[in-house]
Amino acid sequence: MKLKIIAITTLLLSTTAFAGGEHFHPKKVAKCAKSCTAEEVKTALPEAITYLNKWGKIDMGWAGAEVVNVEQKPFKKGPEWVLTLVNEKKEKRYVFMSLDGYVTGSNSTGE
Q: What would the pLDDT profile of 75-99 be if each residue is shown by its tens digit?
């Protein structure tokens, strides 16, 4: 009985017992010390696209798209770099990176 209680308590208190590996985690892709420059995040874009593709967030076809804008934009959780891509069909896609170089997501709205 004592062993059962210990096992149940351990299971309930374990943070890894309920965490799954199927959700996206930001990854540092830009090689910068603290705050990245626009050029540093632009240079990191190929690695960011590869990582986002691994998680199903962007198609690898965007790897050849033109970067038409790199800017910092304010969001609820703080400012981020937003890289605007345009492909040969004139479609737009946005890649988001934290100011310290972590790729945080991608979408087609820029928000």
A: 999 999 999 999 999 999 999 999 9
- The amino acid at residue 79 is P
SS3 content of the chain, % helix, strand, coil (to 5): 30, 25, 45
- Residue pointed to by tokens 């304010």: 74
Burial class for 105, CB neighbours closer than 10 Å (0-12, 13-18, 19+): middle
Identify the three-state secondary structure at position 90.
coil
Neighbouring residues of 47: CB distance < 8 A, sequence distance ≥ 6: 29, 103
Report the candidate in 74, 81, 79 with the shortest Cα–Cα distance to residue 101: 81
Half-sphere exposure of 105 toward its Cβ, with a 13 Å CA cutoff? Answer: 8
* pLDDT tens-place string over residues 33-85: 889 999 999 999 999 999 999 989 999 999 999 999 999 999 999 999 999 99
pTM score, two decimals? 0.77
